[in-house]
Model the fold of this input.
Amino acid sequence: MDGPVQELISAIAAPGAVLATSTKGQHKVEVAGVTDRDSGTSVTPETPFRIASLTKTLTSAATVLTARAAGRSLDEPLAELMPELVAISRAATRLTLADLLAQVSGLRESVDSDAVAALGDGDDALASAARLVIEAGRDEAPGERWSYYNGNYFLAGAALARLAGSSYEDALQQHVLKPWGLTATGFATPDGAALGHEGDAAVTDADYPRSRRPSGGLWSTATDLLQVGERLLADEALLAATREPRTPESSTTTYGLGWAIGPSGQMYVNGRLTGFRAVLLAVPEDEFVAVGLANHEDALPTLAHAVSALQQPHTGDDIAKDLDAFAA
Done:
């Protein structure tokens, strides 16, 4: 990461940032800045950042792996797993878990963050959010149009819990976090976490509603996220299921299960949450993974440019605009 990439990371409009790569399991990490301007604590590869919608990649992986363990297909009607949905709304007809994870459900996008935050953090919070999503009905048949909607993942998280016979959090822990060795990834605000920033002001960390967790609630580190990419690439069946395009040919975005697919088959996603920005990318053919994390709302364009530069020798593509503009 010498030369131009070092200049890029130094230019990021953030108190702190991390760029990290894994090539065939060999890690290289660059860090710059501090976790908090007031404390002056330095960023390290083990500094936790909020990863926002990168959470969807882990929710997707956990769902694929849980379904595999249960002998269930992601393409079977969701109503077979959750028969009560049909009684709530006809929108459940023909809907599958794959439709939700691929953001092609056709569900009406009327359930926002405020609506689900009002559901509280009890054991039934996610199930209640799923009910709101399905009660809203649908605008199109599943598979007709790709549209990025967090409600898809509220419902997918509830379905994952049903598949696992546990809570969503326990299913994620059992099928991804623990077996993949992601010891620094979780929903509770960890010690030493980076503090988000907007402009020159620090952002007070707010609890992330339990009902929204499947779509964007995790904290993680550069080291753990490299491990996410490595474990995905090492599991051929998981990679194939995740990377298969699920969007209609007319879509301007190609999307699998929790990942956008680039022009050379690279997989990527970004994350935006108040005070934080994140990028994760994988090039399966070269066993290459790249991570960019920063604790400032204005950092994404520069992170996207840096991660694009890191993957360009592997693909020949400049995808900085795609990494920045992705819908998360």
